[in-house]
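Supplementary Methods. Inverse-folding protocol.

Structures were first reduced to a discrete structure-token string of length 785. This string, shown here, constituted the complete conditioning input.
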């Protein structure tokens, strides 16, 4: 076989090296294929659009706030948990609202005109800083006016929708659904705005192009969806995020911080919605402008940078839109110092809604920043206790007695409680005993008890602490007597005072059957826990019959005299009825107790009758005036008239009276306090105006006074209010109020109702139907004179 010739494989020549494409060329190629940056990048990767829009809006918002709050009368607005709430409609308030809307619309119009110029520059790989954008907007007054008219129309439509929802909610909801459909259909018309800014089309052409924008054929991969769909997606995403943030903010404890977050969300979310919708419209217009300018088969011809834009892009600048969005937080940051300083002198307080506060209610300070609310529907529920701090309250802690109970705060931050207790067998017609007990609860014991309750664990029905029995009496029943008769729920009452060095307790009770003869005890404790005491007693005629916190009250003067007010229900069977109000006074080391009977105000029927048709909250409250002598606020049975007694001596043998004319107190508990100024401050639930009012006496005898509504009361057929009303002072001397009503405004329920077995405590309350409010004012006299 012949040798074959050697064969060699030719070496392929190397391919010519492709010139490396510069980053700028790559960006230009991508630009020709994919078009301008996406809408989110136009807004977020450059600080200019957010700054151009945000600064004018914030200036307008601050100016609108200052102007509105300066115009509105002091008694028209209040600050509840840091949020501005209207309590009285006035002409000035309408004028202030109109001015605020005009200023906000003007700020929006100028800002969106400037921001649109900046967004257009960003689509062309150029930039337009905020100051230059503002100069462009200042030179386009026609565009600013157009944006102003559009914003004002939207604001008017929003107000009309709110009014319609209040008047005819069903029809209004149908109208809103129709309006939403119209907005979705007409969404592409928004593309007319960037065309007018670019001066690329007349009004008619701009609207026509916008309407048929979904049918336009654009080049390359510049659009994934039609402008209408893009606008809807942008709106849904931003609004959805805003709603989610609102829900998260709603989980915060109500405070100045939550108010600040609310203000921030109220500005940032709408601003983001406006910027993203504008960016979507701008990009859609630029894509169509470039597609119309394409040459041959080239995808697009990028639109050259406008002559008014700077050629270097600032996309990707460190911080991006965060700088502009941070500007939008300025009002929120200003809200806290403004609420704290309160230069306009509005009433300011924290408030919380609780499921219910029953008719017989009292409120006392606990420690440096807490309050305790004690209430019961005497004879039907055990007394319950809530411990509150600002806008947060613990769940109820039921106490061990259905009988009259009262409590006070102690110097160490604890509680001292006096209560009547039933000892015996309710089924037994003999051997039934009633004891007056004192319970001293230290601050640590109260804190552990409250923490356990907040955790939802079942606690003892007896308040923790040392318990001392101070007095007792026996009562025999007939076999046919009802259970409430056997437990004398309507034949006992108690009050306790911490005016002196040690607690003083006043109590009254009477046996079942026979004449209405009752025993009164005044117990002078020898120490803070009342482990020993000196007791004074007297016999008197007293019916009782559904006693409440106002049935008995006690104060102690500087010389150790205990002064007790005792209210009595009218007995139609008696030939000579007992006085409706008596003042009993005495000292621990003195002679017999002294009894006086000041004359009550004439009976004036209330405009609003009791929900049960039975007055259960009449009576009196006693405090010490600036001179150390008793001052008594009273309301007669079935009357709405309040009378203030200023005593000339400790026994109230001589008094000066002031009738609070022009105020319908309803069938509410008389509630007042006297602070360091020595002047009474009175709380009234104004049923006619549906408001919670404060009456500030301008002198010690209340011959001159000032009144102001501090809250609107929510009224509807599903809301079950009570007649509860109590007023006291916290450790700083500021008013604290408990009311059996739900207050209008941004006040959320901040307490869960604990379920108890029937043999353990009260049944569940429906938080949607039961109402109760606890108020803690931020200033002395709640801002009144």
């Amino acid at each position: 076989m012949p040798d074959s010739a050697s064969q060699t494989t030719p070496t392929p020549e190397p391919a010519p090296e492709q010139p490396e494409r510069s980053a700028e060329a790559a960006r230009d190629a991508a630009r020709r294929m994919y078009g301008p940056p996406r809408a989110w990048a136009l807004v977020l990767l450059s600080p200019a659009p957010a700054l151009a829009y945000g600064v004018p809006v914030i200036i307008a918002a601050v100016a609108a706030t200052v102007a509105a709050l300066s115009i509105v009368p002091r008694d028209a607005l209040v600050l509840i948990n840091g949020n501005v709430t209207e309590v009285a409609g006035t002409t000035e308030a309408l004028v202030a609202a109109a001015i605020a809307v005009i200023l906000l619309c003007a700020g929006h119009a100028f800002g969106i005109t400037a921001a649109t110029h900046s967004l257009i520059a960003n689509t062309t790989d150029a930039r337009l800083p905020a100051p230059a954008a503002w100069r462009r907007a200042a030179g386009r007054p026609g565009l600013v006016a157009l944006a102003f008219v559009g914003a004002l129309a939207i604001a008017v439509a929003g107000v009309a929708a709110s009014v319609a929802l209040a008047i005819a909610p069903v029809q209004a909801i149908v109208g809103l659904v129709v309006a939403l459909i119209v907005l979705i259909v007409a969404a592409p018309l928004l593309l007319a705005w960037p065309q007018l800014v670019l001066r690329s089309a007349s009004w008619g052409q701009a609207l026509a192009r916008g309407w048929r924008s979904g049918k336009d054929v654009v080049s390359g991969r510049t659009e994934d969806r039609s402008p209408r769909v893009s606008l809807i997606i942008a709106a849904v995403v931003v609004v959805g995020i805003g709603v989610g943030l609102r829900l998260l903010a709603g989980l915060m404890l109500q405070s100045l911080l939550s108010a600040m977050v609310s203000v921030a969300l109220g500005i940032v979310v709408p601003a983001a919605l406006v910027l993203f919708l504008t960016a979507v419209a701008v990009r859609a217009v630029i894509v169509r402008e470039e597609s119309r300018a394409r040459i041959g088969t080239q995808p697009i011809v990028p639109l050259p940078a406008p002559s008014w834009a700077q050629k270097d892009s600032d996309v990707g600048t460190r911080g991006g839109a965060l700088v502009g969005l941070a500007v939008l937080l300025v009002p929120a940051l200003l809200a806290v110092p403004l609420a704290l300083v309160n230069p306009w002198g509005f009433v300011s307080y924290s408030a919380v809604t609780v499921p219910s506060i029953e008719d017989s209610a009292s409120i006392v300070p606990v420690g440096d920043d807490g309050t305790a609310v004690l209430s019961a529907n005497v004879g039907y529920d055990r007394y319950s206790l809530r411990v509150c701090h600002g806008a947060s309250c613990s769940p109820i802690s039921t106490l061990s007695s259905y009988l009259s109970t009262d409590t006070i705060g102690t110097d160490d931050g604890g509680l001292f409680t006096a209560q009547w207790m039933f000892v015996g067998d309710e089924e037994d017609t003999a051997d039934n005993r009633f004891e007056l007990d004192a319970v001293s609860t230290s601050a640590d014991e109260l804190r552990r008890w409250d923490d356990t309750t907040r955790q939802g664990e079942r606690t003892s029905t007896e308040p923790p602490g040392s318990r001392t029995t101070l007095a007792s009496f026996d009562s025999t029943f007939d076999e046919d007597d009802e259970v409430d008769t056997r437990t004398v729920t309507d034949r006992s009452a108690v009050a306790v005072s911490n005016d002196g060095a040690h607690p003083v307790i006043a109590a009254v009770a009477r046996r079942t059957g026979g004449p209405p003869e009752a025993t009164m005890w005044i117990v002078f404790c020898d120490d803070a826990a009342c482990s020993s005491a000196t007791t004074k007693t007297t016999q008197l005629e007293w019916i009782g019959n559904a006693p409440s916190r106002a049935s008995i009250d006690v104060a102690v003067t500087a010389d150790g005299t205990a002064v007790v007010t005792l209210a009595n229900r009218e007995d139609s069977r008696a030939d000579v009825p007992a006085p409706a109000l008596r003042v009993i006074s005495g000292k621990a080391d003195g002679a017999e107790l002294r009894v006086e009977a000041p004359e009550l105000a004439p009976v004036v029927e209330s405009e609003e009758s009791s929900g049960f048709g039975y007055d259960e909250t009449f009576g009196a409250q006693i405090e010490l005036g600036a001179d150390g002598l008793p001052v008594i606020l009273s309301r007669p049975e079935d009357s709405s008239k309040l009378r203030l007694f200023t005593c000339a001596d400790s026994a109230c043998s001589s008094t000066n009276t002031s009738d609070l004319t022009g105020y319908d107190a309803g069938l509410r508990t008389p509630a007042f306090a006297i602070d360091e100024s020595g002047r009474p401050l009175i709380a009234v639930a104004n049923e006619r105006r549906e408001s919670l009012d404060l009456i500030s006496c301008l002198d010690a005898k209340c011959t001159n006074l000032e009144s102001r509504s501090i809250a609107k009361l929510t009224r509807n057929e599903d809301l079950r209010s009570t007649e509860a009303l109590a007023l006291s002072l916290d450790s700083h001397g500021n008013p604290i109020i408990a009311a059996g009503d739900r207050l209008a405004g941004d006040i959320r329920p901040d307490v869960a109702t604990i379920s108890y077995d029937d043999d353990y405590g009260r049944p569940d309350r429906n938080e949607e139907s039961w109402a109760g409010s606890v108020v803690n004012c931020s200033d002395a006299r709640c801002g009144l004179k």
